[in-house]
């Protein structure tokens, strides 16, 4: 059921992007850039953004993760593949670094692990930036 919905979403997005008049290579590069931009923006907001922006990015990241779980893959990655002959995936550089084969199973497994690590790593900047009191506990002298 969800696989058909995912295909429908990707088909509609592909049709929309093809109307732009850009070449497949340009669209693919723009999608990869957008993918990277989202990741970098998330980290910048986690480190420097205001509390409402922090919550918004957390909500969006949870939505992306749920979408990944529901559709059993990333919709944006599927869309990227429609515009390129390469089998590149955003998790591939990490797989290379940890010396794992770049295949479908490893990509899914390590994407899920990266989401879990990201989720846990969000707690640290949140606690440092918003979770503890900003003003020191100042004791007033006893006037009696």
Annotation keywords:
single chain, 144 residues, mainly alpha, 6 helices, 73% helix, 0% strand
Written overview of the protein:
There is one protein chain. It is elongated and about 75 Å long. The relative contact order is 0.11. The chain is mostly helical and 144 residues long. The protein has 6 helices and no strands. The protein has one domain.
- Summarize model confidence as the mean pLDDT: 87
Helical residues, percent: over 70%
Number of extended strands = 0
Extract low-pLDDT stretches: none
**Count, helices:** 6
Main sheet properties: none
Taken in chain order, the helices and strands follow as: HHHHHH
Structural class: mainly alpha
Mass-distribution shape: elongated
C-alpha Rg, in Å? Answer: 20 Å
Number of domains: 1
Strand content is under 5%
Distance between the termini: 74 Å
In short:
By secondary structure, the protein is an all-alpha fold.
Write the layout of secondary structure elements.
Elements: H1 2-18, H2 24-48, H3 51-71, H4 75-82, H5 92-97, H6 104-131
């Amino acid at each position: 059921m969800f696989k058909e919905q995912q295909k429908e979403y990707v088909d509609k997005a592909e049709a929309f992007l093809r109307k732009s008049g850009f070449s497949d290579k340009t669209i693919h590069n723009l999608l990869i850039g957008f993918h990277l931009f989202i990741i970098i923006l998330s980290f910048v907001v986690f480190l420097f953004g205001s509390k409402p922006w922090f919550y918004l990015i957390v909500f969006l990241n949870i939505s992306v993760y749920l979408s990944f779980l529901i559709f059993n893959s990333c919709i944006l990655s599927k869309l990227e593949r429609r515009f390129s002959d390469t089998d590149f995936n955003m998790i591939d550089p990490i797989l290379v670094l940890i010396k794992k084969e770049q295949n479908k199973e490893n990509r899914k497994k390590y994407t899920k692990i990266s989401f879990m690590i990201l989720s846990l790593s969000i707690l640290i900047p949140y606690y440092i930036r918003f979770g503890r009191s900003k003003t020191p506990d100042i004791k007033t002298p006893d006037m009696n």
